[in-house]
Amino acid sequence: MMGRCFPETYLMNYRTRQFWLGALETLPLILAAFPFGIVFGALANSNGLTFAITAGMSSMVFAGASQFIAITLLANGTALPVIVLTVFIINLRQMLYSANLMHHVAHWPRFVRAVLAFWLTDETFATVSDRINRHPEEPGLRWFYLGSALFMYSFWLFSTILGYTLGSQIPGLSDWGLDVAMIVALVGIVTPALKLRADWACAAVAFISSLLTFDWPQQSGLLFSSILAICVGMLLSRSGKTNE
């Protein structure tokens, strides 16, 4: 009896350790993102969004940079189709993250992959990728990923609610400028992942194009720059495979 229980107990303890390890290794990035969630909630409040819509956006969209951009576009009176398309284009980087992780998660159940794909963020991708680089054959990666993603999700939702609540009590909270700082933090997270020529070309094209199209109406320059950078990346990737 004890012989049968021991492996099960060990496995449960191992999974629990991996879960908390994932949460712990993501904690610095979670703490860095926490103020941004507060400012997002405050911005949503100051722009007239209801509590339900604000909390719903953080719980169902769960994409910090895209949420800030969506709020900005809404405040500028941008048409809804443009907002949806812009957010979609910005979140296409998640496809690159997924492609990078696919080899390591392909054997997981489809439902598990679907749930964890929804929780995939820049912070979790950076943490999980670092874990894979240090421990390529880690059997508990699923639980490590879950710990990272679940804690990031919980803290983001909590910070949004806190920001929305404080936004009506602390004057000027939405003017702290942390929405800009979040973009800077995102660049800091993504930049180490730029290893190939195509990666750097995409970043350079997006940066230059966004400067040149900054004054385009309804933030359409952002959408154009994103699409242009994606096209450049695809062309360079295909060219590289052809040369190989």
Question: How is this structure best described in words?
Answer:
The chain has 244 residues and is mostly helical. The protein has helices spanning 2-46, 51-60, 64-75, 80-90, 93-105, 110-118, 122-134, 141-167, 178-190, 197-212, 220-243. It folds into two domains: 18-193, no CATH class; 197-244. Helices cover 79% and strands 0% of the residues. The longest helix has 45 residues, at 2-46. The N and C termini lie far apart (57 Å). 30% of the residues are buried.
Provide key terms for this protein.
244 residues; 0% strand; mainly alpha; single chain; 2 domains; globular
Give the total of domains: 2
* pLDDT averaged residue by residue: 80
Shape: globular
Task: Work out the number of β strands.
Answer: 0
Query: Residue ranges: pLDDT <50 for 5 or more in a row?
Result: none
Give the secondary structure arrangement, pairings included.
Elements: H1 2-46, H2 51-60, H3 64-75, H4 80-90, H5 93-105, H6 110-118, H7 122-134, H8 141-167, H9 178-190, H10 197-212, H11 220-243
Task: Write a compact overview of the structure shown.
This protein is mainly α and 244 residues long. It contains 11 helices and no strands. α1 packs antiparallel against α7 and α10 runs antiparallel to α11.
